[in-house]
Amino acid sequence: MSTVLLATSSLAFEQRTRRALGSTNGDLSRYDSEVMYLDALAAAKDMASRNPHVILIGPNVAVDAALGVAQALDEEHPEIEVVLIADPTPDLWQAALRSGVRDVLTPEAGDDEIRQVIDRVTEAAQRRLHNLVADSGVDTKKAKVICVVAPKGGTGKTAFTTNLSVALAALAEDKVALIDLDLQFGDVQSGLGLEPEHTIGDLAKVQGGVTATALKVFMTPRGDKLHVLCAPDTPAEGEEVRDITVEKVLRLLKDDFSHIVVDTSAGLTEATLAAMEYATDFVFMCDLSVSSLQSLRKVIDAIDMLGFDQPRRHFVVNRSDAKVGITPAEAAELVGLEIDVEVPYSRAVALSMNHGQPVVEAAPKSPAARSYVSAAQLFLPEPERPAKRSFFFRR
Ligand SMILES: Nc1ncnc2c1ncn2[C@@H]1O[C@H](COP(=O)(O)OP(=O)(O)O)[C@@H](O)[C@H]1O
Ligand SMILES: [Mg+2]
Questions:
Q1: Is residue 156 in contact with ligand 1, taking CB distance under 6 Å?
Q2: Which of 290, 372, 390, 367 is nearest to 334 (CA)?
Q3: CB 59 less than 6 A from any atom of ligand 1
Q4: Which domains does the chain show, CATH number per domain?
Q5: Is the CB of 343 under 6 A from ligand 1?
Q6: Distant-in-sequence, close-in-space partners of 19: CB < 8 Å, separation ≥ 6
Q7: Chain-centre distance for alpha carbon 200
């Protein structure tokens, strides 16, 4: 059990926290001192001298004062976990993270939420203490990280990732994340009809440790099950996103989502390679043009050379019914992979993308939609696969 210090004047919140901690509530004490407003460093020292594992600051503490104390604690006592109790807006999150706050909890949080957040930060602290990195190979939920790669733009990656994600969100038991790593010209958001408040560009600007909860603030929900981390608003912002951000995002999401679909830009960029390090599955895509096929072969050779031999490899041929002198069978031979899914040409695909609603929802009976659903089934355990194709993607 962790020792918790609650810096607030709110007796009601103290009561709730006591209930949250249950029978071991002897480990909770309240700190209510003007020093917090007068001298952040002195307050931090005073609090730390009581040897808490976790300090909850607020409610009823002015945000500036709370952040000042949090920052002082972060600098002087990084071993103590600080949770801010305040209205968790995205702006507050950004400021809180810069001050080394581990988590933000709304003042209205119930017993369960309070206990969960204390457990979570305590666990994180223990992990750090034991110097265990989160990607130690122990992956409780066995999240599938599906990285979709094609050598050329216009191949149909985004059509594929948006439809795949929506289909997975409808069919899988757990939540699905979609990350747009086409950092300069990503268009997942328009394909899914989203208006993101925040993007991976904003996330890249946040200094320090990003927590899973913070990360979700930067994602845009679409329905209950799908959460999307959209691409930056401008190419310049895209330039600022480093591989470290991509790694952080994937490490955190793996704990919370059963499927993480990664859309990429053409070829192998720094961001794509960073994502590939975490991938459990690669989806290679091309259409039936000689140049697309040859380029894909080169991409696969490069991936082989880099030693990515763990992830499962899948091969999707888009516009597979185009009569352009190469058959899918010949494509498979040229690329050296068996085809898992063929997506036929369908005007409905382009139309639906333009309307911000993927074809699995807009025209679920179309052959293209069925192909995307069969692609989703590659990533589902047997029992979750529907006995027959069902068309319940309409929103
Ligand atoms: N199977 C398909 N049938 C018809 N149009 C398609 C198909 N796949 C993709 N498209 C269209 O082709 C264009 C490029 O596809 P997109 O998914 O954006 O490619 P990428 O993300 O690889 O650059 C889009 O306008 C998209 O709607
Ligand atoms: Mg794209």
A1: yes
A2: 290
A3: no
A4: 4-129 (3.40.50.2300), 144-384 (3.40.50.300)
A5: yes
A6: 25, 111
A7: 10
Atom 23 in ligand 1: residue holding the nearest Cα: 154
For ligand 1, say whether the CB of 375 is within 6 Å of any of its atoms.
no
**Does the predicted TM-score (pTM) go above 0.85?**
no
Using alpha carbons, list the distances in angstroms from residue 107 to 60, 61, 222, 393: 9, 11, 26, 37
Residue nearest atom 11 in ligand 1 by C-alpha distance: 350
What is the chain's pLDDT, residue by residue, as a tens digit (395 residues)? 678 999 999 999 999 999 988 866 558 999 988 889 999 999 999 999 998 989 999 999 999 999 999 999 988 888 889 999 999 888 898 888 888 888 899 999 999 999 988 888 887 777 665 543 344 343 445 899 999 999 999 999 999 999 999 999 999 989 999 999 999 999 999 999 999 988 998 888 776 656 777 788 889 999 989 999 999 999 999 988 888 889 889 988 988 899 999 999 998 999 999 999 999 999 999 999 999 999 999 999 999 999 898 999 999 999 999 888 889 999 999 999 999 999 999 999 999 999 999 999 999 999 999 999 999 999 998 765 555 555 455 54
**Other C-beta atoms lying within 10 Å of the C-beta of residue 316:** 27
